[in-house]
Amino acid sequence: MAGHIPEDKIAEIRHAADIVEVIGESVLLKKSGKNFSGLCPFHAEKTPSFTVSPDKQIFHCFGCGAGGNVFSFIMKRDGVGFADAVRRLAARGGVEIPERSLSPRAKRQMSEQATLLEVNRLAADYFRQALLQQPTGKPAVDYLTRRGVTRETIEKFELGYAPKGWDHLLGYITRKKFSPTLIEKAGLVIPRRDGSGFYDRFRDRIIFPIHDENARVVGFGGRVMDSSAPKYLNSPETLVYTKRRVLYGLNHAKDSCRTSGSVFIVEGYLDLIALHQHGVTHAVATLGTALTPEQIRLLARYAGRMVLVYDSDEAGIRSARRCIDLFWKEHVDFRRGDVFSEERADTRILVLPEGHDPDSFLMAHGVDAFRRLAQSAPGVITFVMEQAVQQHGLSTEGKIRIVSDLQSYLTAINDSVARALYVKQLAERIRLDETVILERLRAHGSPNAGPRPGVGTATDAGRRAAGIHEPYEQRIIAMMLQFPEIIPEIIQNGILENFSHPLLKSAGESILRHRFESAEQLPELLAKIEEGALKETLVALAMSDEGWTRSGCSAFLRRFMETRQKQVSGASMQAAIEAAEREHDEAEVMRLLSEKQKMAVRREKQKMSALRKKIV
Question: Is pTM, for the whole model, over 0.70?
Answer without folding.
Answer: no
